[in-house]
Sequence to fold (407 residues):
Amino acid sequence: MLINKPLLDLAFRGFKSIYTQANLEAPSEFEKIAMTVPSGSRDKSYGWIGNLPAMREWIGSRVIGNLSAYGFTITNRKFELTVSVDRTDIEDDRLELATCDRALPPAGEAPEWVHLLPPGKMQGRDGRAYELADPPGLILAFQSGGIDLPVDFEHQNDKPDARLHGPVPAAGWIKELRADASGLWGRVEWTATAREMIGRKEYRFLSPSFLHNKAGQIMRLKGAGLVHNPNLYLTALASQESPMKPIPPDTAKPASLAEFAAALAALIGLPPETPPKDLLAALKAKIEGEPDPAKYMPVAAVQSMLAGRMEERLALSEERAEEKVNRAFKGGFLVTAMKPWALALCRSDEAAFDDYLAKSGPVFAHLMKPSHANGTPPRALASEAAASDLERAVCEQLGLKPGSLIE
Fold:
């Protein structure tokens, strides 16, 4: 690998990000044994009054105690830490851990805020380069999404096989994002399991998962994963695009003008040796000429034919429906009040009408049988009436022949 200024700047930013993160997350103990005093110059003197004498009961005259004055001078000193990196490590691209993956704090506690991405440009182990060019844009996209981003184990959420063959538990949820000079940070709400695992140092590294455009600019954060091997952080997690087989190059020889003309001639029914001028004239004639009535039919004629066929079908359907309903009425399946409904059902769904007839049966058939209520009484009843004593007595009183009242 060629060592140049951009590469050294990238490595420097990575080391600075890690140092800043560790400095912010490392526990501080100095407040227990020292105090904070401001200093605006190279050295500064600070004074104080010594301890007061012990109080006593006021008996007699006042006793005045003397105070002692003390002081100290602090001279500011400079501190530095220079880390050396072997040139071979840079040439062999062994600095990937300084660019993206983040080590969790060594204190044994799951941090609330985690460092997700360093600022500016970064390079993965596989050689692909990415850039955090617009941290506010990533934050806005996260806020507009309206859902928390998952932190899983070993990026299982980005592996289709893992999602298809079982549950993919979350280690935590990214609830908030913020950006500063050291890059992009996320506030994580850890699950109890993940918190215990981080506390026991079963997981020590966090790897981000994000989407990027063709230029390598990070467009949207997908989440993150607790990982063991941070050198795998960009292998298959930087892009949501599914792996695609490379498109083989087109090795076919382009057709010559003569081959194209021969193919066009065959398409319109001309000999392959037709001159280009005659070929174009024939093609123009086919495009602008009237279609062959033996092969083509005007659209308006087709539409008119279809409309006529539809009207015929509707008329036949109407006639068939009326016939079926009348037959069902005479058979005792329907009464007069049911005929409009039966016609509508038979027009729209003949099968449903037939199903109704099969299930209901001729329940009204008894109403169609003739009645004898208005018929002439049988003659046997008349002879019995004539023979009755009452009928003879009435005829005698009226001077009529017996049996006259029956007739």
Summary: Residues 87-232 form one domain. DSSP finds twelve helices and eleven strands in the chain. The longest strand covers residues 170-180.
